[in-house]
Known about the structure:
The complex is a heterodimer of chains A (337) and B (347). Chain A is an all-alpha fold and 337 residues long. Chain A has helices at residues 2-6, 12-35, 43-52, 57-91, 103-118, 123-145, 153-177, 185-188, 198-217, 219-225, 229-234, 239-261, 267-279, 283-307, 316-336. Chain A contains 15 helices and no strands. The longest helix of chain A has 35 residues, at 57-91. Chain B has a two-stranded antiparallel ribbon.
Amino acid sequence: MSDERLRPTSGPPRAAIRIVSLGALATGFAVASLLVGSGELGPGQVMRGLLAHDSTSASIIVWQLRLPRTLLAVLIGAALAVAGTVIQALTRNPLAEPGLLGINAGAALAVVTGIAVFGGGSALASTWFALVGAAGAALLVFVISTRRSRASPTRLLLAGVALGASLSALTGIMILRDATAFTTFNSWVVGSLTSRGMDVVVTVAPFLTLGFALALLSGRMLNVLTLGTEQATSLGIPVRLAVGAAVLSVTLLCGAATAAVGPISFIGLVVPHVSRLIWGADQRRILVSSLVLGPALLLAADIVGRTISFPGEIEAGIVTAFLGAPVLLFLIARRAS
Amino acid sequence: MSGFSRRRAVRIGGLSVVIRPRVIGVTGILALVALTVAALSVATGTYRLELPGVVDALTGGGTATARYLVVEQRLPRAVAALLVGCCLGVSGALFQSVSRNPLGSPDIIGFTTGAATGGLVVILLTPSPSALSIAGGTIVGGLACATVVTLFAAARRFSGDRLILGGIAVAALLASVNDYVISRASLESAEAARAWKYGSLNLITWDRIVPLAACLLVASVVVVAIARPAGILELGDDLATGLGVRTRRQKLIMVAAGTILAAAAVSTAGPIGFLALAAPRLARAAAGFSSVGLLPSGAMGAALLAASDLAAQRILDPFQIPVGLVCSALGGFYLLWMVGFAKTTES
């Protein structure tokens, strides 16, 4: 592993084997996500329901419940993982993550405020609000933590946690105040994939696609940016453009993801680190690997949440926090040694 | 440093007490503010009672409705706000003093979240939770969590950074446990637990206040006894040892007192975020005093929580905001300001 990381490129067959096996892992979870659920369906019935797309109950369950849920898990998992990778590269901070930095909390507050003030709230309107909230929270946390000097990992994380606590408290007040308008938000506010229809998937998909494209295109520049802005400037990188593109992609990814499923933490922390263990330091590879591993992690968390206390359900956001927090502890412990 | 320059020793026989006029003045003013706000929240409310009516009700006259509202609802709530705020302020001062870090408060090092987990487990998983068993749960949960975080920070070489980061990580883990425990509970107990989890004084009654007052009384006796060596301890372990302070024992007593105070507060009102962090720092700024003062911190905590609870009752009236959410919202921004603008953050 270690000698391999020193080489600029490992042989194509090896990389291919790795990416194929990661893809197989994610696909396996996706299939499992289609098969698992409270409606008792055998694998054969799921298959027939999926292919037939008619009015049998199996087909309705698969097409209206399980398929949107699985697609959403794939999209959101990838979005949060890629956003985490970009933020970690941008801030050169291994502990940065959209959930812990309060960006998702900002998006969530904006969504809830939008609904409380303007009423109704289509998925599209919510997404626009979420984008504004995510951008605002991201700007605030970066500006404040870098106000006096370059942000140390601790300062950035502390600022993010403080902002996140404030914004979630405000979200809580909004939701408690108008219980009727927010009856379905008790699970959304901890991050849940439950009962989101295909319309949500369709609404957020364009935003996420744009975010993915920006992130992947700026991969090369992120590689240089990890050397520091002075180095990057002297190497001829348009630093402002690169940072702008990266921040825009984080905003798109986190905002749309939060609008769809609520604030989910730790995927953006865990996946980039695991990807770095597998692929080394090249941001382009980490980005591609996050695109595959993010869905795998969120699908797995969602499956665990659906099965562990059957027939009840635990929200996916609770499961990712439970799994991710020990990883954060481990990273802190390793950093200090 | 002005506190040092303007202090006087008062000697009575063999005993001597150092009087710091500014600290006493600030404490007095804060206590006055706290009592005024509390009086205001007793005297006003959705059900309109003129001042004579309130006084009547307090002295046993007036209508039955007025008596019930004032004596059984408004008064216990105001008293609870004062006591819980005082507990959290003193507790935060003790923790910050021991850790010698402005961020080493029970909120940041995971104590509050741990106490909340302990309390929730008792509320939701035991057959008939009482005030005493909830308090036990919060103490056990808070202590266990604080111990884990402190051990984590002290592994190899103690560092303030790791204390803060470890606290954040453990708090995130426990928050997910809290959400899980609530989601597994039956609907009606989940509602009660959710209200408690936010930190609220909405449903406070006299029988919840009695154990809290007892805790505060015991702890304040301890605190008065250890206040002087606590001040010396802030000069550093070596110097304190040289001046005759038994540092280990002293720290242990301070942590124990801080723990009991915080747990008493959490078991009464639920977890109220950031108050224990903010109160000692604001008190210190007001008193212009370089060390963490226990008395001003307690008074500041009481004033802050009384004011927050009044705001929580009135801002969106008739909706009653859980006061813990008000404190989290304000306290989070205060911490954010500390990270960006305050002159003395360690990290």
